[in-house]
Amino acid sequence: MGEPGLLQGMNADFAACYLLYGPVLAKAVASRAWESGSPDHWCFHLLLLFGLRALTYHAWAMFSNMFFLNRRRLIVRDGADFEQIDKERHWDNFLILQFWMAATAMYAFPSLRHLPLWDARGVAVAILFHVIVTEPLFYLLHRAFHRGHLFSNYHALHHSVKVLQPPTAGYATPLEHLATGGLMAVPVAAACAAGLGSAGLLFGYTLAFDFLRAMGHCNVEVFPGGLFRAVPAVRYLIGTPTYHSIHHMDKDTNFCLFMPLFDALGGTMNNKSWELQKKIGEGADDIPGFVFLVHVVDVISSMHSQMLSRSYASRPYSATPTTVLLWPIALAFVPILWALSKTFVYSSYKLRGRLFQTWLVPRYGFQYFLPFAQDGINMQIEMAILRANKMGVKVISLAALNKNEALNGGGALFVKRHPDLRVRVVHGNTLTAAVILREIPEGTAEVFLTGATSKLGRAIALYLCRKRVRVMMLTASEDRFKKIQEEAPAEAQQYLVRVTKYQSAQHCKTWIVGKWLSPREQRVAPAGTHFHQFVVPPIIRFRRDCAYGKLAAMRLPADVQGLGTCEYTLDRGVVHACHAGGVVHFLEGYAHHEVGAIDVHRIDVVWEAALRHGLTPA
Predict the structure, then answer these.
(1) Is residue 21 part of a domain?
(2) Which residues form the Very-long-chain aldehyde decarbonylase CER1-like C-terminal domain (predicted)?
(3) What is the pTM of this model?
């Protein structure tokens, strides 16, 4: 079935699993089951209940990945990586299994289809049976699943996950799901057998069970540190996320379902549980060594987030039919995001034992081109730099439009305002230039360059002319062209040629694109042209007879940990070259700011440093 939520891709296995709900859904539609007088009203209730169950787990999963809100209370300070996300992709298959268990019960016992709305006595019976039957039976079964054959052939799958998250609750074998589903049914069945069942009990107990189970698998401690010190008895009545997480660290302790009382009675309670819960509950912040400062590209891409769907974010971004349908919902959040006044933690990973974080400026790409918004954006970027400086961050790298030349001179504005910054501000464009230049085949005699007088355009032109490559620089400004040409060695200046029309490149098959190209402009290029590009967003592929390079990017070293999000349209483990440039700056321990104009002499130096640290061309 896969991760809940409409953001899941429209793939065959996803659709096929949801078709298992088809017979009940068809029956509900045919009999208008949503109407209270329908004889098949129970079908509507059943479908609604299991929709709410999926939503419960998904809501907790969203909360688990709100790093801006809960990073101080993380139990395991690693993120769920791609391997774990792939493992848990079909975690909610147990909802289908239990859906059909419930549907079968409805058919076998017709009286269940006509339960009253509420009966408080039934709730009391269910709570009693949960405490005296479900909790102790789960405890005994759980201990049994930790022995020999049952563990190695069944329960080991669940314990193979490194970082607990709500979807981990469903990552288990069918035998375990059958056992859990049966135990979950006991309290409700007991109340119904006593003639005290109700629809409110069915919904309330099931959703409460799911709520507590999802909470227990959450990697965030939600209880305050001093709670169990103030009210000691409560510690035996409710298991915290930390308590359950300890079970995955020490498999011989903390076996209970929701009530640690049974671990205390069985002698399997980990004595460090409350000490660790108190420590994590009080909160502590990890200081990242490196921060990459990004922004939202557009409205639809704002849904490409681990917070909304781990599964969708773990694949390269693309606008699917489903995301297009959800566009109005994403659009509704634009004013909310716009109202936020400061950056926040978006994602994180570890490399060489150090924490690397991505912070998000709550602004969309189009806002960077609104003159009245630019001062506010610069203020947010400046606040993020000062916050990083205060925290002790070593390097902060500016992504895409956050380093726009017209906005802040590639970050130079902030360094000029704050000359005593300890944090190094980096635009990362030196490595970006290196990546683009390495894409150009050896022996190329001529290139056509748009965006020629930008930071990257200037550096690429100066580098290539020194290699005796003729560079046609498209620019309307003769003064800016002359200024760049004068920077080149005297013997190389002849290789820089100013052009003012795209038609000048109608015979050139190597285009380096730093300015967005329309279909009409692309048609000027001859067949077989390769479009290398450093424009955001990337140009649209209109020509089937031409090749289109992706945005400059590099693959992170193999020892990266906890990475579970794809960076925009890039593949897993691949980051934009400006991100990689900041990583290299940090790993090399460079003491200078990398802002403003690119130092052409450092292009090869930074490239070699990147390769030395295990970064590879994408």
Answers:
(1) yes
(2) 447-617
(3) 0.91
**How far apart are the C-alpha atoms of 18 and 21, rounded to whole Å?**
6
Cα dist from 72 to 286, 291, 615, whole Å: 7, 17, 30
Residues 566, 541 share a domain = no
Task: Answer yes or no: do 410 and 515 share one domain.
Answer: no
Q: Which of 220, 245, 261 is the last residue of a domain?
A: 220
Mapped onto helix, strand or coil, the DSSP state of residue 557 is: coil
Instruction: Identify the bridge partners of residue 364 per DSSP, sorted by sequence position.
Output: 296
- The predicted pLDDT at position 6 comes to 34
Asked if 448 and 303 sit in the same domain, the reply is: no
Which three-class secondary structure state does DSSP give residue 555? strand
CA–CA separation, 274 and 524 (whole Å): 70
Are 354 and 481 members of one domain? no
Angle CA 424–426–432, to nearest 5 = 150
Distances (CA, A) of 550 to 42, 241, 519: 52, 42, 17
pLDDT value of position 13: 45
Q: Is residue 282 part of a domain?
A: no
pLDDT at 17: 59
The DSSP secondary structure of 115-146, one letter per residue, reads --S--HHHHHHHHHHIIIIIHHHHHHHHHHTT
Domain holding 348, by residue range, is: 290-426+562-617
CA distances from 358 to 13, 292, 396, 452 (A): 33, 5, 10, 30
* Same domain assignment for residues 370 and 474: no
Per-residue confidence (pLDDT) for residue 18, from 0 to 100: 65
The parts of the chain modelled with pLDDT lower than 50 are 1, 3-16
Q: At what angle do helices 241-249 and 273-282 cross, to 10 degrees?
A: 120
Instruction: Please indicate, yes or no, whether residues 188 and 109 belong to a single structural domain of this protein.
Output: yes
